[in-house]
Design a protein that fits this description.
Helices cover 35% and strands 28% of the residues. It is an alpha+beta fold. Among the domains are: 95 residues, OB fold (Dihydrolipoamide Acetyltransferase, E2P) (Beta Barrel), CATH 2.40.50; 92 residues, no CATH class.
Length: 324
């Protein structure tokens, strides 16, 4: 076992721990909801809706950003003790948006008679579905095993790789930076492969007409660096566009696969294009499996840049391996 500080393993396993805590909390909510009484209800609104979602973003000074996502807005009416109430929460599970929007709308069209489960202490708190997805804990158990084996296996494997590299290069003291650079290049190459694959798939998606709602630049301050000084002013391209797919309205926010590119200079964003006029008519490539995912440009014109980024560390690592 590699002799690493305990907090290193804690940091690597922390995301999995947060997921398990969230799943446990939701399971307790489900158990509480099983005791809720039920009453008949009726769906009065069934449509898609754009909502602002607060998303963690460690690259920003305030630690978060606001992201627009598509949701199924299912509003239903029900009565408790003679009081008519409304709610739009479908499941006791968290709806993060951009997922099964059309399926939920099709499941609960306007006029559908539904069973509403409500909290007897707080009748305005209600759901239509009070069960978590089947197999959730089984999947989390498998993910836990994979994560633990992956973290400790990677640590052990890294130790073995360093031993092998140290025995084969001219200067064993250069083994750590050489392996680190090679690993960085490998990660960049994997990103390039994923981007190429994603672009190839998107090119085959069905095309529908759309309209640009907003085309501009988001300006924010980056998180402070190690020097504790305030971060730089960053710029990020923002393009939102509306479209319809199979009679359901959506809003897209990623004009291309480079939409999330961030830079300290506005003019650098011109390299990534996506300069549209508000209200302009556009073609939208829509993922038929998840129509909330769409793009105005399925190409990945800067994929070659990732290959260059990968080649640089590999070349330096090669020079380190040959240096005496």
């Amino acid at each position: 076992m590699p002799d690493l500080p305990w907090f290193v393993y804690a940091m690597l396993l922390a995301p999995l721990g947060l997921i398990l805590v969230a799943a446990t909390y939701k399971t307790l909510q489900v158990r509480a909801a099983r005791e809720w009484p039920s009453t008949p209800g009726k769906v009065v609104v069934s449509t898609s809706q754009l909502r602002d979602v607060r998303v963690l973003d460690s690259a920003r000074e305030n630690g978060h950003k606001i992201e627009q996502r598509n949701f199924a807005n299912i509003v239903y009416e029900y009565s408790v003790s003679g009081q008519k109430l409304r709610n739009n929460r479908v499941s006791i599970g968290e709806d993060l948006g951009n997922f099964q929007v059309a399926e939920t709308i099709a499941k609960y069209p306007v006029g559908t008679i539904v069973t509403v489960y409500y909290n007897s202490r707080h009748p305005r708190e209600a759901v239509l579905e009070r069960d978590l997805p089947q197999g959730l804990w089984g999947c989390l158990g498998i993910a836990t095993v994979i994560a633990v084996v992956g973290v400790f296996g990677a640590s052990i494997g890294l130790t073995r790789i360093l031993e092998l590299v140290s025995a084969r290069i001219a200067n064993p003291q250069m083994s750590v930076p050489a392996v680190a650079l090679a690993g960085f290049g490998l990660v960049a190459a994997l990103f390039a492969l994923v981007l190429r694959r994603q672009s190839a798939l998107a090119a085959s998606w069905p095309v529908v007409p759309g309209v640009v709602k907003l085309s501009g630049v988001d300006e924010y301050r980056a998180a402070p660096g190690d020097s504790s000084r305030r971060g730089s002013i960053m710029h990020e391209r923002k393009v939102s566009f509306s479209y319809r797919f199979k009679d359901v309205a959506y809003t897209g926010v990623h004009g291309s696969f480079s939409s999330n590119s961030r830079t300290t200079s506005r003019w650098m964003l011109r390299l990534f294009g996506m300069d549209f006029q508000d209200g302009a008519s556009v073609k939208v490539w829509v993922n038929p499996v998840n129509p909330s995912e769409a793009t105005l440009d399925p190409r990945a014109p800067f994929g070659w840049l990732l290959w260059l980024i990968a080649a640089g560390p590999w070349a330096v690592a090669g020079l380190m391996a040959r240096a005496a």
